[in-house]
Amino acid sequence: ERGKIAEKNMLKATGGINTHKGVIFLLGTLCCACGRLWKAEKPCFDPNLLAKECMKLYAQEARNDYKVIREGKGLTKGERIYLKYGLKGARGELESGFESVLHYSLPVFEKALSAGYSENDSAVYALLTLIALGKDTNMIARGGRTKADAFSLSVKELIDNGRYPSMEEVKEMDVKFILENLSPGGCADLLAISIFIHDLHCFYAK
After folding, report:
1. For a surface tag, which of 17, 88, 90, 173 has the fewest beta carbons within 10 Å of its beta carbon?
2. Measured between alpha carbons, how far is 4 from 7 in angstroms, rounded to an integer?
3. Are the C-beta atoms of 10 and 24 separated by less than 8 Å?
4. What is this structure's pTM?
5. pLDDT digits (tens, 9 = 90+) for 105-129
6. Residue-wise pLDDT tens for the chain (206 aa)?
7. Distances from the Cα of 9 to the Cαs of 2, 24, 144, 183, in angstroms?
8. Cβ of 94: how many Cβ atoms within 10 Å?
């Protein structure tokens, strides 16, 4: 219910534009998992345990959602992309226990921090890592599968072999994305989850 209220407030503030529906859904479920695992004497901040709890909360519901998605009017962009390409978007991330976060963006974010990069730059590298996976349904909705895949590949080449590109290179890539109206909004949602999990762990691990 609180998630629906947050979504309504977002749409009211943006004039009906969906700017972060995905992260409301993902972060809301993650916060619910935190609450379910909460113990005052020992709060849960283990990323893997939190991810597993998210799976328990939503995996079956996600599978039920897929079964009832059919061609027709009223489908969201994400649902259309699922029917066409099989990409599951935010639903798939919860169903997998935040696989993209735990296996890709979070390790890159923390490795960059350990290497001495700022939190901002580390977040940039984590975001690039997510884009390179080629699973962002918002990019596909904006530019089509072929263009989205081509740009994901260009990002993958930019960070090939764990390379940390300069911010000038990143800005050049950003301009290209803007010119093609490609917005990796799904990746941005997962970046927010990555930073939340990292900060939660750092706060309670002290």
Report:
1. 17
2. 5
3. yes
4. 0.89
5. 999 999 999 999 999 999 999 999 9
6. 778 888 889 888 988 888 888 889 899 999 999 999 988 888 888 999 999 999 888 877 777 777 777 766 667 788 888 888 888 888 889 889 999 999 999 999 999 999 999 999 999 999 999 999 999 999 999 999 999 999 999 999 999 999 999 999 999 999 999 999 999 999 999 999 999 999 998 888 76
7. 11, 11, 29, 22
8. 23
Torsion-angle region of 149 (φ positive above 0: left; ψ -120 to 50: alpha; else: beta): alpha
DSSP state of 45: -
Start-end of H helices in the chain: 2-14, 21-36, 47-68, 77-85, 89-95, 99-100, 106-114, 119-132, 137-158, 167-179, 185-205
Q: Helix 185-205 to helix 137-158 angle, to the nearest 10 degrees?
A: 70
pLDDT digits (tens, 9 = 90+) for 69-97: 776 666 778 888 888 888 888 888 988 99
Q: Give helix 47-68 / helix 185-205 axis angle, nearest 10°.
A: 150
**15 is written with which tokens?**
């004039």
Q: Which amino acid is at 165?
A: P
Residue of 172, 173, 176, 185 whose CA lies nearest to 139 = 185
What radius of gyration, in Å, describes the C-alpha atoms of the chain? 17
